[in-house]
Amino acid sequence: MTKRIFLTMLIVILLQILLFDHFDGSIADLTGYMIVSGVPISNKFVLLGTWYMFFAGLSFLSLGYMRKYISGYGVYLMIREKSRVKLGFRRIGNLLILISGLSIIQFFVSIIFAYITNEDQAFFYDDVHSFFWIAGLYMMSNFVLIFIQMALELHATEEVALLLVNVYVLFSVTLGGVLLSTQKLTWILYFLVPNFGMYVRSDVLETGGISPVQAYIVLTLMTIILTVLTYGRLKKIDLI
Question: Whose CA, among 1, 144, 154, 216, lies 20 to 30 Å from 59?
Protein backbone atom coordinates (compact mmCIF):
# COMPACT_ATOMS: atom_id res chain seq x y z
CA MET A 1 0.00 0.00 0.00
CA THR A 2 2.81 2.40 0.90
CA LYS A 3 4.45 1.98 -2.52
CA ARG A 4 1.14 2.50 -4.33
CA ILE A 5 0.43 5.64 -2.29
CA PHE A 6 3.88 7.02 -2.99
CA LEU A 7 3.73 6.36 -6.73
CA THR A 8 0.19 7.71 -7.06
CA MET A 9 1.00 10.91 -5.21
CA LEU A 10 4.26 11.36 -7.10
CA ILE A 11 2.33 11.22 -10.37
CA VAL A 12 -0.18 13.75 -8.98
CA ILE A 13 2.65 16.08 -7.88
CA LEU A 14 4.39 15.94 -11.26
CA LEU A 15 1.14 16.42 -13.18
CA GLN A 16 0.18 19.33 -10.91
CA ILE A 17 3.49 21.15 -11.51
CA LEU A 18 3.33 20.60 -15.27
CA LEU A 19 -0.24 21.91 -15.42
CA PHE A 20 0.63 24.98 -13.34
CA ASP A 21 3.55 25.67 -15.64
CA HIS A 22 1.34 25.25 -18.72
CA PHE A 23 -1.57 27.41 -17.55
CA ASP A 24 0.28 30.07 -15.59
CA GLY A 25 4.02 29.60 -15.84
CA SER A 26 4.63 33.32 -15.38
CA ILE A 27 3.59 33.16 -11.72
CA ALA A 28 6.01 31.47 -9.35
CA ASP A 29 5.73 31.02 -5.62
CA LEU A 30 8.30 30.42 -2.89
CA THR A 31 9.20 27.01 -4.29
CA GLY A 32 8.39 27.69 -7.93
CA TYR A 33 5.13 27.45 -9.85
CA MET A 34 2.25 27.91 -7.45
CA ILE A 35 2.63 24.90 -5.16
CA VAL A 36 2.39 26.80 -1.89
CA SER A 37 1.48 30.05 -3.56
CA GLY A 38 -2.05 28.72 -3.91
CA VAL A 39 -4.89 30.05 -6.03
CA PRO A 40 -4.86 33.74 -7.10
CA ILE A 41 -7.45 35.99 -5.51
CA SER A 42 -9.11 36.22 -8.92
CA ASN A 43 -10.17 32.55 -8.50
CA LYS A 44 -8.96 31.26 -11.86
CA PHE A 45 -10.82 27.97 -11.92
CA VAL A 46 -8.23 26.14 -14.02
CA LEU A 47 -5.62 26.95 -11.38
CA LEU A 48 -8.09 26.10 -8.60
CA GLY A 49 -8.57 22.65 -10.12
CA THR A 50 -4.82 22.20 -10.50
CA TRP A 51 -4.12 23.26 -6.90
CA TYR A 52 -6.92 20.98 -5.68
CA MET A 53 -5.36 17.87 -7.21
CA PHE A 54 -2.90 17.31 -4.36
CA PHE A 55 -5.47 17.69 -1.60
CA ALA A 56 -7.94 15.49 -3.48
CA GLY A 57 -5.23 12.81 -3.63
CA LEU A 58 -4.66 13.06 0.12
CA SER A 59 -8.40 12.96 0.79
CA PHE A 60 -9.11 9.86 -1.29
CA LEU A 61 -6.05 8.03 0.01
CA SER A 62 -7.22 8.78 3.58
CA LEU A 63 -10.71 7.39 2.95
CA GLY A 64 -11.47 5.01 5.83
CA TYR A 65 -7.86 5.26 7.01
CA MET A 66 -8.83 5.09 10.68
CA ARG A 67 -12.38 3.73 10.88
CA LYS A 68 -11.87 0.76 8.54
CA TYR A 69 -8.60 -0.09 10.26
CA ILE A 70 -10.11 -0.09 13.76
CA SER A 71 -13.21 -2.01 12.72
CA GLY A 72 -11.14 -4.42 10.61
CA TYR A 73 -7.62 -5.49 11.54
CA GLY A 74 -7.81 -3.34 14.66
CA VAL A 75 -10.41 -5.74 16.11
CA TYR A 76 -7.74 -8.43 16.46
CA LEU A 77 -5.47 -5.97 18.23
CA MET A 78 -8.25 -4.97 20.61
CA ILE A 79 -8.81 -8.62 21.45
CA ARG A 80 -5.17 -8.63 22.55
CA GLU A 81 -6.04 -5.84 25.00
CA LYS A 82 -5.02 -2.96 22.74
CA SER A 83 -6.99 0.24 23.33
CA ARG A 84 -9.10 1.48 20.42
CA VAL A 85 -8.21 5.04 21.48
CA LYS A 86 -4.49 4.29 21.21
CA LEU A 87 -5.02 2.55 17.88
CA GLY A 88 -7.00 5.52 16.57
CA PHE A 89 -4.47 8.14 17.57
CA ARG A 90 -1.62 5.98 16.30
CA ARG A 91 -3.32 6.09 12.90
CA ILE A 92 -3.66 9.85 13.19
CA GLY A 93 0.05 10.14 14.00
CA ASN A 94 0.96 7.95 11.03
CA LEU A 95 -1.21 10.08 8.78
CA LEU A 96 0.51 13.25 10.01
CA ILE A 97 3.87 11.75 9.06
CA LEU A 98 2.51 10.67 5.66
CA ILE A 99 1.06 14.11 4.86
CA SER A 100 4.26 15.86 5.98
CA GLY A 101 6.41 13.51 3.92
CA LEU A 102 4.34 13.91 0.76
CA SER A 103 4.28 17.69 1.19
CA ILE A 104 8.05 17.84 1.57
CA ILE A 105 8.42 15.74 -1.59
CA GLN A 106 6.05 18.17 -3.31
CA PHE A 107 8.23 21.10 -2.22
CA PHE A 108 11.46 19.48 -3.43
CA VAL A 109 10.02 18.45 -6.80
CA SER A 110 8.72 21.99 -7.25
CA ILE A 111 12.10 23.51 -6.32
CA ILE A 112 13.96 21.22 -8.72
CA PHE A 113 11.48 21.97 -11.51
CA ALA A 114 11.81 25.72 -10.95
CA TYR A 115 15.60 25.50 -10.90
CA ILE A 116 15.74 23.48 -14.13
CA THR A 117 13.25 25.60 -16.07
CA ASN A 118 14.09 29.05 -14.72
CA GLU A 119 16.39 29.54 -11.76
CA ASP A 120 15.02 33.05 -11.16
CA GLN A 121 11.63 31.55 -10.34
CA ALA A 122 12.97 29.88 -7.18
CA PHE A 123 13.32 33.18 -5.35
CA PHE A 124 12.61 31.67 -1.93
CA TYR A 125 16.40 31.45 -1.51
CA ASP A 126 16.27 35.17 -0.68
CA ASP A 127 13.48 34.76 1.86
CA VAL A 128 13.85 31.42 3.64
CA HIS A 129 11.98 32.72 6.69
CA SER A 130 8.81 33.32 4.66
CA PHE A 131 9.18 29.93 3.03
CA PHE A 132 9.13 28.14 6.38
CA TRP A 133 6.19 30.22 7.57
CA ILE A 134 3.98 29.36 4.62
CA ALA A 135 5.25 25.79 4.11
CA GLY A 136 4.41 25.01 7.73
CA LEU A 137 0.92 26.46 7.31
CA TYR A 138 0.44 24.49 4.09
CA MET A 139 1.30 21.17 5.74
CA MET A 140 -0.62 21.91 8.94
CA SER A 141 -3.76 23.02 7.09
CA ASN A 142 -3.69 19.83 5.01
CA PHE A 143 -3.35 17.75 8.16
CA VAL A 144 -6.21 19.53 9.96
CA LEU A 145 -8.49 19.08 6.95
CA ILE A 146 -7.75 15.35 6.76
CA PHE A 147 -8.13 15.11 10.55
CA ILE A 148 -11.61 16.63 10.14
CA GLN A 149 -12.38 13.98 7.53
CA MET A 150 -11.30 11.18 9.86
CA ALA A 151 -13.29 12.65 12.75
CA LEU A 152 -16.39 12.85 10.55
CA GLU A 153 -15.94 9.19 9.63
CA LEU A 154 -16.62 8.34 13.27
CA HIS A 155 -20.05 9.97 12.97
CA ALA A 156 -21.02 9.19 9.36
CA THR A 157 -19.97 6.96 6.48
CA GLU A 158 -16.57 7.39 4.86
CA GLU A 159 -18.17 8.61 1.63
CA VAL A 160 -20.19 11.32 3.39
CA ALA A 161 -17.09 12.50 5.28
CA LEU A 162 -15.11 12.63 2.03
CA LEU A 163 -17.85 14.62 0.28
CA LEU A 164 -18.30 17.12 3.11
CA VAL A 165 -14.60 17.89 3.47
CA ASN A 166 -13.98 18.27 -0.27
CA VAL A 167 -17.02 20.51 -0.74
CA TYR A 168 -15.78 22.61 2.19
CA VAL A 169 -12.32 22.90 0.62
CA LEU A 170 -13.59 24.06 -2.78
CA PHE A 171 -16.16 26.41 -1.22
CA SER A 172 -13.53 27.91 1.12
CA VAL A 173 -11.03 28.64 -1.64
CA THR A 174 -13.70 30.20 -3.87
CA LEU A 175 -15.20 32.34 -1.09
CA GLY A 176 -11.74 33.28 0.17
CA GLY A 177 -10.88 34.79 -3.19
CA VAL A 178 -14.10 36.82 -3.19
CA LEU A 179 -13.53 38.15 0.34
CA LEU A 180 -9.92 39.16 -0.39
CA SER A 181 -10.81 40.83 -3.68
CA THR A 182 -13.56 42.92 -2.05
CA GLN A 183 -11.74 43.33 1.29
CA LYS A 184 -15.05 42.87 3.10
CA LEU A 185 -15.81 40.52 6.01
CA THR A 186 -12.21 39.25 5.86
CA TRP A 187 -12.54 37.85 9.40
CA ILE A 188 -14.50 34.99 7.82
CA LEU A 189 -11.21 33.84 6.24
CA TYR A 190 -10.16 32.37 9.59
CA PHE A 191 -12.98 29.84 9.24
CA LEU A 192 -11.80 28.90 5.74
CA VAL A 193 -8.79 26.69 6.52
CA PRO A 194 -7.72 25.82 2.92
CA ASN A 195 -6.69 29.47 2.40
CA PHE A 196 -4.17 29.38 5.28
CA GLY A 197 -1.38 27.70 3.33
CA MET A 198 -1.60 30.01 0.30
CA TYR A 199 1.23 32.52 -0.04
CA VAL A 200 -0.77 34.89 -2.24
CA ARG A 201 -3.60 35.01 0.32
CA SER A 202 -1.46 35.69 3.39
CA ASP A 203 0.26 38.80 4.67
CA VAL A 204 3.69 37.15 4.91
CA LEU A 205 5.00 40.03 2.81
CA GLU A 206 2.72 42.52 4.60
CA THR A 207 0.51 42.86 1.55
CA GLY A 208 -2.73 42.13 3.39
CA GLY A 209 -4.65 38.91 3.81
CA ILE A 210 -4.48 36.13 6.39
CA SER A 211 -2.13 36.65 9.33
CA PRO A 212 0.20 33.61 9.59
CA VAL A 213 0.38 33.95 13.39
CA GLN A 214 -3.39 33.95 13.75
CA ALA A 215 -3.65 31.11 11.24
CA TYR A 216 -1.26 28.99 13.33
CA ILE A 217 -3.31 29.76 16.44
CA VAL A 218 -6.56 28.74 14.71
CA LEU A 219 -5.01 25.51 13.39
CA THR A 220 -3.59 24.65 16.82
CA LEU A 221 -6.96 25.23 18.50
CA MET A 222 -8.70 23.15 15.85
CA THR A 223 -6.21 20.32 16.36
CA ILE A 224 -6.83 20.37 20.13
CA ILE A 225 -10.63 20.43 19.68
CA LEU A 226 -10.52 17.60 17.11
CA THR A 227 -8.28 15.56 19.43
CA VAL A 228 -10.69 15.94 22.35
CA LEU A 229 -13.77 15.16 20.22
CA THR A 230 -12.09 12.18 18.58
CA TYR A 231 -10.98 10.83 21.96
CA GLY A 232 -14.52 11.04 23.30
CA ARG A 233 -16.00 9.45 20.20
CA LEU A 234 -13.51 6.57 20.16
CA LYS A 235 -14.34 5.82 23.78
CA LYS A 236 -18.07 5.51 23.03
CA ILE A 237 -18.53 4.39 19.43
CA ASP A 238 -19.19 0.74 18.60
CA LEU A 239 -17.01 0.09 15.56
CA ILE A 240 -17.39 -3.68 15.46
Answer: 216
